[in-house]
Amino acid sequence: SGKSTQAKLLIDRLSSLNIENLFLREPGGTTISEEIRTVLLNNRKDEMSSRTEALLMCASRAQLTKDVIIPEMKAGKWIIADRFADSTLAYQGYGRQLNLSFISSLENLVHPDLQPDLTLILDVPVNIAMGRVHTRGNLDRFEQEDVAFFNRVRAGYKEIAKNNIDRCREIDASKDLAEVQAEVMQIIRDFCKKQSNS
């Protein structure tokens, strides 16, 4: 959906304004979390259970939160993450069809008092997203899933956005790159203005 590109453009803009920031990817971001990432994305012959997948995602996030996110937030940095807890709910909850309460209980265990201030959901129709992914080649375990899986994930993100209108903003990422960037920056400007007025 172009999230890596938009994240880089945002980081460049923040840096140009002398706003200290840090970009993080999930799963990953620490030595332990990167090792977990390798296990999660590896195309192995033995099938990983959905619960194992969810637990590993949350284990990676627990390490990242403890070692990086909380200390860097305390230092005053903006944290830009390409994914966070909503992704686990969308992929493992809706996509893998695990019990949503189970996923929420894991989130409460990993980071009970930590939620993003703002979540941008870059939405594209599944066929467009899959077309973009397949042009890159060398697909990981998730990228090889079928259309039905990604339709459930997309529906999950839409449900998350609907249930969290205070922090989630949906963006049509099938539009031109510059249009998407302009919308991202406008949402962030509006958010900052609202924060400064409250």
How does this model look, in words?
The protein is mainly α. Helices cover 61% and strands 9% of the residues. The chain contains 8 helices and 4 strands; from the N terminus they run αβααβααβααβα. It has helices at 3-16, 31-41, 50-74, 85-95, 100-110, 126-136, 147-163, 177-197; strands at residues 21-24, 78-81, 119-123, 168-172. A two-stranded parallel ribbon has the order 1-2. Strands 3-4 form a two-stranded parallel ribbon. The radius of gyration is 17 Å and the shape is globular. 24% of the residues are buried.
Features:
198 residues, mainly alpha, two-stranded parallel ribbon, 4 strands, 61% helix, globular
Short structural summary:
The chain is mainly α and 198 residues long.
SSE arrangement:
Blueprint: H1 3-16, E1 21-24, H2 31-41, H3 50-74, E2 78-81, H4 85-95, H5 100-110, E3 119-123, H6 126-136, H7 147-163, E4 168-172, H8 177-197
Parallel strand pairs: 1-2, 3-4
Helix content percent band: 55-70%
Could you tell me the strand content as a percent range? 5-15%
Q: How is the largest sheet built, in terms of strand order?
A: 1-2
Bulk shape: globular
Mean pLDDT: 94
Count of alpha and pi helical runs: 8
Oligomer: single chain
Order of helices and strands: HEHHEHHEHHEH
Task: Give the beta-strand count.
Answer: 4
As residue ranges, the low-confidence spans are none
Distance between the termini: 32 Å
Helix-strand category: mainly alpha
